[in-house]
Amino acid sequence: MTGQRRRGRTGRNAGGVSGLLVTGVLLAVFPLPPVTFAGRLHPLGLLRFGLRVLYDLVVASLQIAWLALRFGHEPRGAIIAVPLRVNTDLNLTLTAEALSLVPGSLIMEADRATGTLYIHVLGVRTIEDVERFRRGVLELEERIIAAVGSEGERRLMIEATHTGTSPPAER
């Protein structure tokens, strides 16, 4: 019995090592574009962001559970395009990752050139639901910029919020 356990463990370790080796080769052959971080961590913004993500996780989980348990109700979904106000790779990635964590929303595509996320959302029935979700994504972006954004990105966010426009940011 002990010999079988040892062989099993060795096989698993060898699989992990070969997986790391394959990953290393793939990254060497197909390198990812660099993502620069020009901002800094803002502890209060990080706390607000983290608490809101936890809240969104709980609320969205309850909403999805309710949709799943309702008999005779066919949930509707939509694909919504949301152009972000700060068009940087890091902002696009962080916003997309945070949205993907929340049940009921899934990133379908991210357009780097325009900074637009295409998101599949469950439970959308009216144009008001679409606009409410779009505002929620922009509020999430604002919390991310408040948590890790540079001073320039934070200024862009303030300008966009006050004017209602989406000024483009440099990559």
The number of helical segments is: 5
Q: Output mean pLDDT.
A: 86
The largest sheet is: 3 strands, antiparallel
**Count of strand segments:** 3
| Residue fraction in strands | 5-15%
Tertiary shape: globular
Indicate the low-confidence ranges by residue numbers.
167-171
Task: Output the structural class.
Answer: alpha+beta
Radius of gyration, whole Å: 21 Å
Strand order of the largest sheet: 1-3-2
Helix proportion range? 55-70%
Q: What's the helix-strand series? A: HHEHEEHH
What separation lies between the terminal Cα atoms? 58 Å
How does this model look, in words?
The protein is α+β, with helices and mostly antiparallel strands. Helices cover 60% and strands 12% of the residues. The chain contains five helices and three strands, in the order ααβαββαα. Strands 1-3-2 form a three-stranded antiparallel β-sheet, covered by helices on one side. A hairpin with a 4-residue loop joins strand 2 and strand 3 (116-122). It is globular.
Ordered list of secondary-structure elements with their pairings:
Blueprint: H1 2-29, H2 43-69, E1 77-83, H3 89-101, E2 105-111, E3 116-122, H4 127-148, H5 151-163
Antiparallel strand pairs: 1-3, 2-3
Descriptive key words:
171 residues, alpha+beta, three-stranded antiparallel sheet, 5 helices, 60% helix, globular, disordered C terminus
Short description:
The protein is an alpha+beta fold. The chain contains five helices and three strands; from the N terminus they run H-H-E-H-E-E-H-H.
